[in-house]
Design goal:
The protein is an alpha/beta fold. The protein has two domains: about 180 residues, Rossmann fold; about 140 residues, N-(1-d-carboxylethyl)-l-norvaline Dehydrogenase, domain 2. It has 15 helices and eight strands. It has an eight-stranded mixed beta sheet, sandwiched between helices. Strand 7, helix 7 and strand 8 form a beta-alpha-beta unit. Helix 8 packs parallel to helix 11. It starts with 5 loop residues before the first strand and ends in an 11-residue tail after the last helix.
Length: about 350
């Protein structure tokens, strides 16, 4: 198995920068692509991503660029870490820059809003056919600030080719960054995307000060929705009881560093959505994913009441308390296999 020495990281948000830092500290040659020219300049001159990961000192060996061609040139693998709503356009720019197929790991947690496609499905659409077997997905409970601080983190890497997954599993792993291998590409991505929707709902519960009982119930029933949709789409139910499922769900629904949870809290306190997202540098993926998740539920005839209610709050100005009340007064049902 050939050792991977050179990686490109496409996307210099908080998570992309944290992953690039992690690989550079491992001694790899890393080139980080930033859409914003100012971000690339700051990383190279000040060794800090002042916009998306302020206060974190980056290795001097980490090189940033605003040229996507330069980021890709000579790389043995790519980490793709851009917001879901620009994934297709960035991939379209990326594809002509690859002289030959390169293993590509999606670390974007979202669903394309217009098509309801997962990120690897968008990659299948845009990238050359020989790339399809080389596309993987990385997901799990991971705050960029904690990885950047060297705190222990464990994630799941899924792909269609087990040998390739194993190669990049070893590429990414360090004593503080543990990676588990899987083949359930659909399940790993769905867990990472849908937990953001549930984190919005959990934030609403906390913003309304409904208590820990309510939040625990929301997380549990949220997981039930994720499992129902995932299995309907061909995912392995066991995936959702792992790192990319319940692990990421609990972190994002309870962690104070969660952007999606923070948006939900502010919604619960009565702030308009436009005001909340208008003041954010980073993307709260759950806002865009909520619509796509509801469309997937419709296509696969899956009942997702929490997802339905958070959509009503986000886009139909439904009062948060009314949404919670409507969830609580639905018909009585058995727990297993029901919504």
């Amino acid at each position: 198995m050939q050792a991977v020495r050179t990686m490109g990281v496409i996307g210099a948000g908080a998570w992309g920068t944290a992953l690039a830092k992690h690989l550079a500290e491992k001694g790899m040659t890393v080139r980080l692509w930033a859409y914003e020219h100012d971000v690339a300049q700051a990383i190279n001159a000040r060794h800090e991503n002042t916009m998306f990961l302020p206060g974190v000192t980056l290795p001097r060996t980490l090189v940033a660029t605003s040229s996507i061609a330069d980021a890709v040139d000579g790389c043995q693998g790519l980490l793709f870490v851009v917001p879901s709503h620009v994934t297709r356009s960035v991939l379209t720019a990326l594809a002509p820059c690859m002289a030959h197929p390169i293993p590509l790991i999606s670390a974007t947690k979202g669903i394309e809003e217009e098509t309801a496609k997962l990120m690897t499905q968008v990659m299948d659409d845009v990238l050359p056919l020989p790339m399809r077997s080389m596309i993987m997905a990385l997901s799990g409970p991971s705050f960029a600030a904690e990885l950047s601080a060297g705190k222990p983190t464990a994630l799941c890497l899924a792909g269609r080719e087990p040998a390739l997954v194993q190669q990049f599993q070893h590429t990414l792993m360090t004593p503080v960054f543990r990676v588990y291998a899987d083949t359930d590409v659909i399940g790993v991505q769905l867990g990472g995307a849908l937990k953001n929707v549930m984190a919005l709902a959990a934030g609403v519960v906390d913003g309304l000060e409904l208590g820990l009982n309510a939040r625990a119930a929301l997380i549990t029933r949220g997981l039930a929705e994720i499992v129902r949709l995932g299995t309907a789409m061909g995912a392995d139910a066991r995936t959702f009881y792992g790192l990319s499922g319940i692990g990421d769900l609990v972190l994002t629904c309870t962690g104070t560093l969660s952007r999606n949870h923070t948006v939900g809290v502010r919604l619960g306190k009565g702030e308009p959505l436009d005001t909340i997202v208008g003041g954010m540098h980073a993307v709260a993926e759950g806002v865009r994913t909520a619509r796509a998740a509801l469309e997937l539920a419709r296509r696969h005839d899956v009942d997702m009441p929490i997802t339905q209610e958070i959509n009503a709050v986000l886009f139909n100005q439904k009062p948060c308390r009314k949404a919670v009340s409507d969830l609580m007064v639905r018909d009585a049902k058995p727990e297993k296999g029901s919504a």
